[in-house]
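Reviewers of the previous submission asked for a worked example of the structure-prediction workflow described in the proposal, so we include one complete record here. The input consisted solely of the amino acid sequence. No template or homolog information was supplied to the procedure at any stage.
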Amino acid sequence: PALFSPCPPRPPLVLASVSVASRPAQMNAGAARASGAVLWFVHADTVVPEDGVAVIAAALRDSRVVAGGFVSLMAGAETTRWATSLHNAVKTYYGPLLFRPLKCFRGLRILFGDQAIFVRRTAFVACGGYNEEHTVLEDASLCDRLAPTYGRIVQVSRTVRSSDRRVARWGELRANVIYLVIGVLCGLGVAPGVMRRIYPDVR
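From that input alone, the workflow returned the following structure tokens.
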């Protein structure tokens, strides 16, 4: 059966709310209200391509693929953070290669929220969805539980644009050092609460 059905001219907007300030809880609540065979998690500060649904459908024609994400270009009003964007794209591969090498060769890729992650609903539900105790790098935790048990994860060769507010606040060098440090801590299994002290919210 087809993964996607034709969209009406103006798809209905359904709002889901949670009682805690938790992105994993928010995404789980949204997934519970969604009705499609594929879930697409798009952050409010991320702009996706007009043909994004077609790109996802093409990726999921391969039955071995369970989830994927886009290449995220981190940008502000006046600049695109090319170095940070490149680092983010590359760590999709080097993270699992360093910390989960066997799983990496079997299809694990580590995606992050600003990559507009998509995933087959059945696999998302089966693996338990987002772990609401992981308030930092919750997307990495999801990927680690999805692949290779439910299939492969891919990074498609298309871009989305995401806000550079963290880089603008911290500076590009400091931001990339922080991203690297919390990635290493996550790979080593350090508790989310410890990582949160290093990776504070900047809203």
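The CA atoms of residues 99 and 188 lie 8 Å apart. We consider this example representative of the routine output the project will generate in years two and three.
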